[in-house]
Amino acid sequence: MSLSKSYIPQLTLDFLSQEIYSLTNRESANSFLMDTCGVRSFFDNEAEFTALKRIIYENITPDNIVNRREFGDYQTNESLASQCVSLIEGDSDYEFILEPTCGKGNFIIAALNSIESVSKLVGIEIYKPYVWETKFKILSFYLTNPDKETADINIIHADVFTYDFKKLAKDTKVLKTLIIGNPPWITNSELGTLDSSNLPKKKNSSLQKGFDALTGKSNFDLGEAVVVNLFNHFQYHRGSFALLVKSIVIKNIVKSQRKNKVKIYDLHKYVINAKAEFDVSVNASLFTGSFGVEISYTCLEYDFYTKAEKLNFGWVNDKFVSSINKYKQSSHIDGYSRLIWRSGMKHDCSKVMELNQIEAYYTNKLGEKIFIEDNIVYRLLKSSDLKNIDVTSSRKFTIVTQRKIGQDTSYIKQELPKTYQYLCNNEQYFSSRKSSIYNGKPRFSIFGIGDYSFKLHKIAISGLYKKTTFSYVGPDKSKPMMLDDTCYFIGFNAKAQAKIAQFLLNSQIVQSFLNSIVFSDSKRSINKDILMRIDLYKVYKLFSFDEVSSYSDCITYSAWESFKNEIEAKDIVQPTLF
Ligand SMILES: C[S@@+](CC[C@H](N)C(=O)[O-])C[C@H]1O[C@@H](n2cnc3c(N)ncnc32)[C@H](O)[C@@H]1O
User: Fold this and answer.
1) Tens of pLDDT along 74-84?
2) pTM: predicted TM-score of the whole model, two decimal places
3) Which atom of ligand 1 is nearest to the CA of 127?
4) For residue 75, how far is its CA from the centre of ligand 1 (angstroms)?
């Protein structure tokens, strides 16, 4: 039973209570309600009309609240919906309004309230109670605004991923169109964990620019799939769109413009406070733009509330950047790093592989005391340990079972019996690791390990934080420190070399360059691809030995020269699995 009294505003209920006696069947009720508020086929079948009568006569109880997580359900409040409409209202002579996943209908009411010229409106929603709520809200809207002219309104109970937008686009081609709303906020991998089938269906049509590519990915946002599908169908209309989405969706769509060349232009991103509006910690924004005339490859970013301009991001020639202005000032160092950036070590076994040192023994996360040889125990740094410019100690330790990926680990049994015993005692934790990278590998295998891990001097950065400062990670009593897989680093044999690299990487030009290409609302703002774009040789040439030598006592002229040789070397290609 999806129709419940709770969806019907009191005023509308009073109105229906008076009229119900003259409405004998579904047809007469539908025709009466169409005249009153423009909504077509208010009741899809006789059972729905009967349900309404029952509500009015018997005052039944509301539906149970169901779990709405798989529907990415974050209903836009009335105030935010009105603010969004007024933001695009400027030239507001829209004739057709489409709300692709209309929920409780607040965008629809905000649009009907402000845009007088609407002659046709379509709302789609998968959850029947919301369909009811929207229909009754519209009825209520026209009852309280009797002077407003009604439009041809269709609130459709359907799945946005199977709905026939091709036909709708054809039928509305001549109408000035506004697509407005707030598509679901959930990713397909989250749906996987919920065992939900609320997913786009495979299309395989050449018309589906980018859609197949997107939905073929292992992780994509449902909202993005909705938006991409709508753009495919409506890009040749006259009109605009205003869609509340996760900010990453806007970045992805602008990024894919180079390949997909969808006819959307005048793109704007208005950053909202999702915590305050939806009580959820997500970066979200209103994405606005127009259809049909040009193809934009860049997007202007504003604060939604103050309208203060923040950034202009998108494509500059063949580079995708987070701030076009900053990028223009630093683009000359955009290139390829001759030094290979690495991510740290990965073991997926923190319960037994992350150790604390207490006097002469270690403890693990299971609270056990561990007495093992020190030989393959190394200090371990995590992202949160890279706060300082120089890092020479650590809170944690780890066991480095291999010196390179795939190395046979049987040596541990012969050479380090206590370590071997400890690892064997905890073998279950290793064998239950989910990632397939460990399949068929020697016992106690780790990843993100190679000669580079054993360099004594490293320059490192966290992949998790917005901060772009590089830390020097020195050895602990001639033993290198390891980094975990949330960090990236380059390793050196000599401290002077590492310090030169640190000086160059923390220089204003590199920092400005990073700020121009890093998207701070991404989960991993810093990653290997970004770091590999810093052409250290070009940076090197901007500085003199005198400037760099004052940075650290250990930097000699010969170190400065040999650093140059290292970064000048051509075509160093190393396997970079992690
Ligand atoms: C983020 S909420 C926003 C609702 C409404 N647009 C608003 O702004 O308040 C997303 C809506 O999409 C609906 N939805 C989720 N999956 C859907 C699907 N496959 N087809 C149609 N609607 C869907 C949810 O039920 C929910 O009402």
Assistant:
1) 999 999 999 99
2) 0.76
3) 25
4) 8
